[in-house]
Amino acid sequence: MIAIDPTIDWTISVALALIFVASAVMKLIDLNEFHGAVENYRIVPEQISGLVAGAVPIAEIAGAIGLMLPATHRSAAMLLSMLLIVFTASIAINLLRGRRNIDCGCFGPALRQQLSWWLPARNAAMIAMLAIVMLPATERPLAPLDIATIAFAAATLAVLYSAANYLVANAPHLRALEIADA
């Protein structure tokens, strides 16, 4: 079986924990808005959409915390993978229904993002990263340089993820500006 270096394992784990905590906090800031996003997907019955809207950010925070704890590291990666699979299927179903003009709800009202095929691709990349975290890591102890590398690389990954999300969220506005200039 393949064993990965603990620096890679922890870099991915810290970056994904930051992303999931940010996502959960943005949803919790305006839970009513996120509830509306869940209803707009038309995947779960309306009667339980409020329960689902409340459970998603809690599961994201629990998964992020679990990624940081050695005892729950791999099971948290499994939980977050399953969440992403459900999110991806929900997005794909609505795209196939032709429903692009709804907010994905991925980061609450702070980042309104219309549904696009970018979102399943993004989620697939995150699922692949979580699959790496589920692999066993070598027992090599981390040196101070490893810890600095983990902190810098995880912060860089989280910032790149955020920048890509903002670019995709603003793509329709940029296209409108190009059309207006033409």
Keyphrases for this structure?
single chain; 182 residues; mainly alpha; globular
Number of helices: 6
User: What radius of gyration results from the CA coordinates?
Assistant: 18 Å
Could you name the ranges where pLDDT drops below 50 across 5 or more consecutive residues? none
Main sheet record:
none
Distance, first to last CA: 56 Å
What is the overall pLDDT average?
92
The portion of residues assigned to helices is over 70%
Beta-strand residue percentage: under 5%
Order of helices and strands: HHHHEHH
Instruction: Give the helix/strand class.
Output: mainly alpha
Query: Tell me, what's the shape?
Result: globular
Overall strand count: 1
Summarize the structure.
This protein is mostly helical and 182 residues long.
Architecture overview:
The chain is an all-alpha fold and 182 residues long. It contains six helices and one strand. The longest helix has 38 residues. The chain is globular. The N and C termini lie far apart (56 Å). The model has no long low-confidence stretch (mean pLDDT 92).
